[in-house]
Structures are given as C-alpha cells and as structure tokens.
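Archive entry. Fields below.
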Amino acid sequence: MANRKILAFFPLMAALSQAPVANELTGYAGLEARAFTADPADSIQSDAGISASLSLEYYRDLDDGNQRFVASTFGRWDSEDGERSHGDLGELYWWKAYDSFELYAGVRKVFWGVTETLHLVDVINQDDALENIDGEDKLGQPMVNLLMERDWGTLEVYGLLGFRERQFAGREGRLRASLPVDEGGAIYQSDREEKHIDWALRYSHVLGDWDLGLSHFSGTNRDPLLLSSNDGLLTPYYAQVDQTGVDIQTTRGDWLWKFEAISFKPRGEDRQTAAVGGFEYSLYGIRETVADLGLLMEYQFDDRRGPWSTANQNDIAVGVRYALNNTQDTEFLLAVSTDLDNGSRFTNLEVTHRLDDRWLLEAEARFFGNADEGDPTYSLRNDDYLQLELRRYF
Amino acid sequence: MQPNRSKKQFLTRVLAGTLALATFSVAANELDLAAEKGLEIAKEADRRDLGFGDISNNLTMTLRNKYGEASMRSMRTKTLEQEDDGDKSLVIFDNPRDVKGTAFLSFTHKVGSDDQWLYLPALKRVKRISSSNKSGPFMGSEFAYEDIASQEVEKYTYKYLRNETFDGRDHFVLELDPVDPKSGYSIQHIWIDMEEYRAWRTDFYDRKGDLMKTLTVSDYNQYDDKYWRANKMEMVNHQTGKSTVLQYSDWVFGNGFTDRDFTKNSLSRAK
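PREDICTED_STRUCTURE:
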C-alpha cells in the first residue's frame, strides 16, 4: 500500500518538474555514511552510522510574476542518534511585489555576510546544528519582512515572530558537548520566552567594487549559553541581545577582500566585539590546465569572554580550493583554522564530484587536532570523522 | 595563417624602416589602414545591433569529450542592453541538477573589469565573485568565460586581413587582439559577412600563437526585422579533441526588463 502511494507520487513529481518554470518541484534524496576514527569520549556514543535525507522545494509564481508561493522541507533519518533523525519546514512563505516595496510573510531562510570561515553578522536563522557543525545549515524562521530597493541602496525590515530553539545531538550521538543537552529545559531571559518578537533591520548597497552591509538585530540570541544543571545535563539559556553588524567586500581583480564585525550587547551586560576579515585570491589555468586554485586566509577576533566566549577569539584560518573545471566539476577544499592562543586546530577537507546529470558524490573529513582543554572544541577532541554522501537530484 | 606572422612582419618592417625611412612609413600606413578598416567593420556590426533593448532565451549545451561521450547543461538567460556601458545579464541554471537554481548576475563594462555575483540556493547566499577568470571554461565546456561574455567593441583592437567567400556569402576576415592581458588568446580571426555583418566563424589562437579552437555559427534568424541571432554555435577544441554545441531557443525580444530585474535582490529571487 505504502509502495503504491510512492509509485503514484513519482509521475506527479515528474509532471510537476516538466511543467513551465512558473511552477516546479525539485529536490534530492541523499544517503550518508559517517565513520569516526577514534573511540568516543563517552562509551555510549556511536562509532559509525548511516543516514538518509530528503530535501524538497516547491514554488509557484502567480499574478504575472508579482506574487510567489514557496514551500521547502528537509528531513533526515539517522541510524545511530534518534535526535539527529529530524525534519524541518525550512520555507513556507508568500511574496508579493508592490510598486515601491516587496513583502514576505511566512517561514524563510535569510543569509547576511561576506566571509567564508565564520558568519558573524548572519543572525536571522537558528543553526541546524544536527545537520552540520559548520553553522551553514539553518532552520526556517517565521517572519514578516519588508524590502525596499532604491538608488541609495536596499533596506530590509524584519519582524521575527516566534523563536526556533537549537537542537542538539542526543546521548548516543557524536559531535556534542561533554554532557547531553536538556532541550526541554531551555531557559529564556525574556518573560515572553520563545514568544518574544525579535526585529532586525538591514541596509545594503553596491558601490562599484564595493559591496556594503549594515545590520541590527534586537531579540533572543540564536546561540544559547549552556549551563550545567544538577542532573548532569546542560541547560540552554537564551539571552536577550542587541547586535549591530557591518559587512564589507571589495573585489579587485583576482583579489576579494572581506570583512565582518559585530558589536554584541547582551541585556544587562557590557558591550563586546567580534570581527573576521581576510582575502581570497584566485590563480587560473594551473600548470597549463583549465584548473583554478583559490587561496583563502581569514583572521578571527572575538573579545567575548566568560560564558560568552567562542572558539574564534584569536584564530587564523587558511584554505585552499582546487577546482578541476572538468565536466564533473571535481573540487577539493582544504581549510585549517588554528587558535593562536592555545594551538587548537580544526581541519576540514571537502571533495565534490558529479557522477552525471542527477548524481553527486560528496566526501567530508574533519579533524580536531591538538584541542586544548580550555577551547570549546575540547569536547569534540575524539570526534574526527570521515563522511561520504551520495545524492540523487530530481 | 600563423598569428605571429603579423607581429614578425611588423618587426621586419621596423628593421627595414630604420634602413629605409620611406619603406617604413609606407608599411606603417598599411597597418594603420588595416586597423582603421578593421575597427570600422567591428563598429558597424555593433551599430547594427544597437537598440535591441532586452532579450530572454533558453540555452542547452552539449559537451563532448574526445571519445564522443556527451553531457548536457541547460540554462535560461536574460539580457538588458545599457545605453553607455556593456549589457547586464542574468543566467539561471537548470542542469546539471546539483546546480539547479544557481543564478549568475553580470554587469559587463566596456572598460575595466565586469561586476559578477553568484546566487547559491542551498545557502540562500549571494556572493560577489572575481570576474578576472577570462580564460577558464564556462560550466566545464569548450567555451571560455570571455567567449560567452557580452562582446564590446572596446575589448579588442582590430585589423582587417582580407575578403573571403564561402557558403555563397562574402566575408570580411578580421584579426582581433584582446585588450585584456588575462585573455587566454593571443589573437582571434573572425569571419563577418558583408551583407548583414554576422559572425560565422572564429578561430582562436592560444597565448603561444597556436590554433586552439574554432567556433562555427549557424541557423541565424532575424528578429524585429533587424537583429540577427544564431540558434547554433559549435566550438571545437583542436588541441584536446573536445567540443561543445550551444543550442539556443525561445528568443523573446522586448520583455520590458528594467535595471531592477538585474540587482542582487532580484538575483536572490531568480527562478
């Protein structure tokens, strides 16, 4: 019965994806295998596992392209960690263009910023920390958003309705803090708790070689503090914060110069600062081939201390991207970030290779080298892993 | 025709000229005339295409390796003509499926480097990228970025070489020397028909001066009784044996695009 339903679904999807582009269903199904190279810090944690994921996106344009409806969803099943088996409605929104502004209403994902190794100004969405620890996967955020584009720049106003709590790996899962997190026991600074309405404002502009952004966020901090509780668990604490951010990129020939900084003010506490900046430089036609080599360096600074401290206080990240520019778009990315205070080192290797029009292979390896006891990556010291993912797009 | 020949010829003439001033000035005059005529032909071809306004079309690319194995790319493009500068264009990728939804925005400039942004749908991120990779392959094909970029008169210096007749048409043959030092080519030879000023064939010579690729253009149609556009472009790489065929379809002129349709914001909404 279930099978028959699935079979009935496929012609429908095929019909939708062949329809004119004003109405389309797309997505992928993925199969992932992950193996950890060392014994876990906590013996209950798993050594290896497989998981499957499904990503779907649908949109429909209406009103001669002046209105759009978008829905997208993501789900994962994991063999080892029940908490990592999760799903999210990433987008469910309606967009309308008026004469002088645009309106978005619903659940969306929004990215702000320019740097590669750290995303300081990007504050709208909660991280999907179960998907990846790199902070690039996000959960959908309910919002009402107005956007105005003028000759003097683009202005966006966000009313953020309802808060998404971060989800954490379960007791059996790897890549977690030394103690499991008690998600149900989250504490909020605001009396309105997760119902607090946050707001944000962003101005951005392009001036020749310069891409500029200025933003402000006021509301519930997306990054919780993890407090030890009596029952041997960690309790997430969501503070109220004001954060002003600036992001700047200047593009000069083969050089991209990038900078982001935030001024971070938790309610009732002192103002703190963090910044990241650096360059990307590209070399084309390596050794008489069509391959490119991209070199990346970014310095990370963060003066947040005590409970607010991050892993990026005085760190340098260097990276190399090697793209073969072949039909399969084979690409290698190697990045190493080093804490200049305590020597903790994080290494990330990613390889992507297209098999054909619909199949993609991705490999990822991460190593937490030399993790210092005082560094937030200390709890991940035994969690070096290799991962292989196969995706089928439709 | 060896591409270096013209330069060698010039040098020889300079040397000869130091011996006999008269010879030199005659030769220099010949070169000036060839350059002047070449530029005039390029300008005329450009002038005949002025005022197209905007265009949208669909494009499929068939990439073949030397064993004949094929892979496909497909995309949709929108172009907006600018009065005093190069065109603005938006490309939305449909295949391969892993890059589906990726979109590319480009402001071509007559002088100086172009402005380019990429939209990455998985991250919802618009990223400004470097436009200096002229010679790299577009989507792994035999077309370099500079081959598919908007062709502006200012991007080359010109020299008229000769007339040639084939397929029942009379052509001017021009030599183009790219102004940008990052170009992957030393020179190009281009065949433009005398009646309608359409390009039918281009030979690309690599930086060493060896013949690298030949572009053959066919299936021209005229739109609005004025603007000629080809449906088929085939690029053959003589050095690697690989080839790429571009097949255009669904040409629409006069979509009513404005500059607002070519911004970072519209790029992030491109479908």
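CURATOR_NOTE: Helices of chain B lie at 3-19, 21-48, 145-148, 264-269.
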